[in-house]
Amino acid sequence: MIEDKSFDEKIEILKTWIKSSNNIIFLGGAGVSTESGIPDFRGDNGLYKQKRDMPVETILSHDFLFSHPKEFYEFFRQFNKNSEVKPNITHYRLAELEKEDKVKAIITQNIDNLHQLAGSKNVYQLHGNAHRYYCVKCHKKYSYEDIMSQDGVPYCSCGGFIRPDVVMYGESLSNFLLREAIYLISSCDMLIVGGTSLTVYPAASLVDFYQGDKLVLINAQATPYDYRANLLIKDSLGKVFSKI
Prior knowledge:
Layout: H1 7-20, E1 24-28, H2 56-59, H3 62-67, H4 69-79, H5 89-99, E2 103-108, H6 114-118, E3 123-125, E4 128-135, E5 141-143, H7 144-148, E6 162-166, H8 175-187, E7 190-194, E8 215-218, E9 231-233, H9 237-241
């Protein structure tokens, strides 16, 4: 592991590795978007630390969505009121690296739309996208604007209930997306992991499928996978990507 070097020395190593790689995968978490103003779950100001009548895991669960849709949407609209949020330097630089044919795909646990807004095309959102909605009865699709422009529980023209296209607590991730993520990571020559505590499974276990020798881990806090990294940078993503 390359750890006992200065920040600038690590950046030079990172730049060299990116230059010599042609199949880079980026695996990201909430820390990618916190610098855009979107709160994470587990940080000091995250959703888990905020006081409310019931835990976030309960409100954002499958059972609560269908048993208390009114209360769910009251919270979800407030939580997801981020239409003015813009991508940050990390989103934009990853999109540029994709255009340069360096980054082949972004695998993210985030449900925001910021990678796409920044210009990235090949984005795999393991937990879904909070800008997509669909009817549980006829599967008609609805947009973020359709839902945010109205009050109360949204219903489809067919009478069916409209839900967010995100993975709730109590629901399983898409097997297709997981298989794709495993394939992409197992076949890449460089894996950059950033802005994630690597404590949420099965997303965290995806790191185990990397077979190369350029595993870069960028996170301000320690993670259970720090010992696995070939290059460990304990700093903010914005600071790192502004140097690349």
